[in-house]
Model the fold of this input.
Amino acid sequence: MTGVLVAPIAALARALAEGKTSSRKLVEEALARIADANGEGGRAFTKVHGQGALLAADASDRLRKEGVVPSPLAGLPVSIKDLFDIAGDVTTAGSKILRDRSPAAADAVAVARLRAAGAVVIGRSNMTEFAFSGIGINPHYGTPANPYERGTRRIPGGSSSGAAVSVSDGMAAFAVGTDTGGSARIPAALCGITGFKPTTARVPREGAFPLSTTLDSVGPLAPAVACCATIFQVLAGDAPRPLSPVPLSGMRLGVPKNHMLEELDIEVSEAFQSALQRLSRRGAKIVDITVPEFDAAAKANVGGGISPPEAYTVHRRWIERERDIDPRVLERILRGASVSAADYIDLLASRAQLMKRFARTHYEFDALIMPTVPRIAPRIEELERSPERFRLANGSMLRNTSLINFLDGCALSLPIQPPRTAPVGLMVVGFAGEDERVLSAGLAIEAALAYQGPVLVDTR
Done:
């Protein structure tokens, strides 16, 4: 297949309501794309729930005929990142060493809420092993290629790599991933879709295999901002309701001049500057600002931050006897073994202080905007071949996004690239607890930048 028409959730829900399609048909189309020998399905998924998805789709169609439609997600196929428990499945978290674990007795809370909303689980999406990188390479299950210039096989971004590709390639209507340092926003940005990192406490993490118990958050990847808003509401346990875009005219958008705009690829810089110009022409007020908390957070994380010691705590019981782990991931986990308890406690205290300072009372803007990642997606082969290039690329991918996790902000990534050019993400950032505010701002920004679904994603 040379391209896939990616439709927003609202369009699919409308087609279902009008009888123009059925859940069965949507699931069959998604399964056909997953099974396409020339596609990325074999690398984007670690397990496909084909028969179960078809049965669930048929049940959804029967309920719809009886007038039972629990949410706008009803009947839509969703991919679930491989670190979420799905009842009856082994949760492998992208690793081989967990294959012999007992199957999960129950769904993770996020999965249970999606099922209750009527979504159809189509399979488990591939990921960076143990979710520990922003690149998306997985030596055990393969690495799904970015939809841009597919023949060159560029990285999908991580750690929710299969989640992003499953959406960009029409193998799922939307996906659920996690975001510890950018793991939903990075692959969304690199694959030309939308991803949202909520405030950590808004979506329960029970039943999700942890990377960092402090920083992990659960969020959606989808074709457009309104899709992410709908999915987020379901994940958060809220009743789905349409969010309205805030008026763009007069909106104060802060552009941090420190840290976030350094060393941008030319494609990223040009797309970002074009976005700023278009937003300004539509009435937004672009305000250059300095955010000292970004510099302080970057300095605090020089030694690797919170994730390595917390990941080492999770993995230390098997890491000494198991060596069949991606060496790029193993290196980062082992870094946590040398972090002293005192240093870890100091780091948490520094984070708490910075979180208090990174608050609306100290700033005068409606939202922050910046590039999601400073680079376009590099080729998989060059990063697999060179550990040093991998380290540099991984640090670059995580640079902007990870600071938002450290400060417990909420953030949305939406695509801003010109047609048929390398995907570039614009990150819309708010303070802790401002999830709906960020999504409403994102709706206005998306409309002003004329990014309207459905979108033809080049998969050649």
Notes: The two ends are 8 Å apart (CA to CA).
